[in-house]
Amino acid sequence: MFVYSSISHYQSQLTQGHTTCVEAVEHYLRQIAATRHLNAYIAVYEAEALARAKELDALRQQGKTTGRLHGVVIGVKDVISHEGHPLTAASGILQGFEAIYSATAIKKLLEEDAIIIGSLNCDEFAMGSTNEHTIYGPVLNADDESRVPGGSSGGSAVAVQAGLCMVSLGSDTGGSVRQPADFCGIVGFKPGYGRISRYGLIAYASSFDQIGIFSTNIPDTALLLEIMAGPDPADSTASRQQPDAYSKELDTPKTPYRIAYFPEALDHPSLDPEIRDAIYKRLESLKNEGHQVQPVNFDLMDYIVPSYYVLTTAEASSNLSRYDGVRYGHRTEKPVTDLVDFYKKTRSEGFGKEVKRRIMLGTFVLSAGYYDAYFTRAQKVRKLLTSKIELIFNDFDFIILPTAPTTAFRRGEKTEDPIAMYLADIYTVMANLAGIPAISLPLFRHNNGMRFGLQAMASRQNELSLLRFSHELLTNREN
Question: Which of 185, 226, 292, 355 could form a disulfide with 351 if both were Cys (CB 3.0 to 4.6 A apart)?
Fold first, then answer.
C-alpha cells in the first residue's frame, strides 16, 4: 500500500523499486475520486499525470539522470498559469479560459520532473478567507466538514490535508497560504516578496502577492522553495539574489535564538483564549530551552488591517480592470446600448459579490476626493510598519504570532459580516505589508478538536533561518 511521508522517503522507495510513479499517481487519483465532496479540485489531469508518471518510471529504470522532484505529485491553485490547462481564478469572468503560457514556478517544477495532477479550488481571484467565494462551490475542511478550510487557498490546503497530493501551491496576498494551513493543520509557507517569481500568477494586489507552499513537513517545503526561487528576467520584482540550498542546510547545530512577541497581539480581545495560552506556553518552553524570548511593544496592531485593505483593494481595482469582455473571458450576451453598458453588464455577470465589493472599495479609495485621505495615509502606515519591523529584526531573529484569532469557523458563519472576516486577517497581513517571509506551523490542537498553528516571521530574504527554526519547532513539537 502506497503511503506518503516525505519527498525524500518517497524517492528512496522509487530507487529501491518498492513503488513507482504510476502507483503514486493512481493512489492520488483514487483518493481524489473518493473525496470529491470536499471540492478541493476543479480539474484533474488524470490521463496526462499517468502518462507523465510512465515516462518518469521509464527514465529512472533506464538509469538516466532524474530531477530533484522526480515523480512528486503536486496540485496547483487556480490562479497559477499552466499552459494548455484551465485558468479561471474560480471566477465566472474567466470561464472556459486556458492558460497560454506557464508560470515560471510551474516551469521550474516540471524541469525537475514533478507531476502536476490538477487545478485546485480557491476564493475568486484569491479574495476571501473561507473558500466560499467561488463559482465551483465551497471547499470543505477534511477534519470537520461543517467548517471552512480557510482561504483563499482552501483547495490547496485541503489537497495536502486530505492526502490528495504530496505538496501544493497557493498564493498569499494577506495570509491566504498561512491561514488555511492553520485551519487545516498543515505547514503553510509564504516566502519574502520577490523570492519566487510572480510571472504567471494572476494578480490580485501586485505589491503583496506571493506564491506559497503547502506541505506536511519542512524538508519538502525547503526543497520546493529551493527549486522555484531565484531571479527571473520575466519578473522585474523577483529577487536577484540566488537562492540558498535550503533543503541541504536545515540541520545545523542548535544555537540560542532571539525571539520577539507582541503582547498587543497575544492579548488582543479577538484572540481565542486557548490559542493565546498555547502560544504563551510554547514561548515559555522556548525560553526554558535557552532561547532569548522577549516581549516587544507594537502599537500599530489596530492600523494593520485597515491599511492592508485600503492598499490591496486599490491595487485590485486596477488589476481587475483588464477583465472587460473584449480580449478574453466572459462576454455578456445581453443587448447593450454602448461600450460602457457592455462593460457594466459583462463585469456584473462575470464577477462575484466579494470581488465586486473589493473593486468598489478600491475605486473609492483611489478617487480624487479620497486618495489622500485613504490611499496616501495607508501607504504611510505601510512605510512606518516596515521600518518598525526592520528595527525589531536588528535585535531579534524571529517574531512569533498566532496565525488566526480562532480555529476554523463554520461554513456561512462569516459570509454576512465581511468586516469580521477582514479583521480575522489581523495576524497574517503584517508579513505581506512588510514583504517578509512567514510560516504557519501545526503545533496544537484545540479542545473543540480542530488543529491550529503558530506563526513565525523572519527578516526580509531570510527564509533559510526561518525554515531551520521551523524544522526545530516541528521536530520537537509536543503531541
Answer: 355
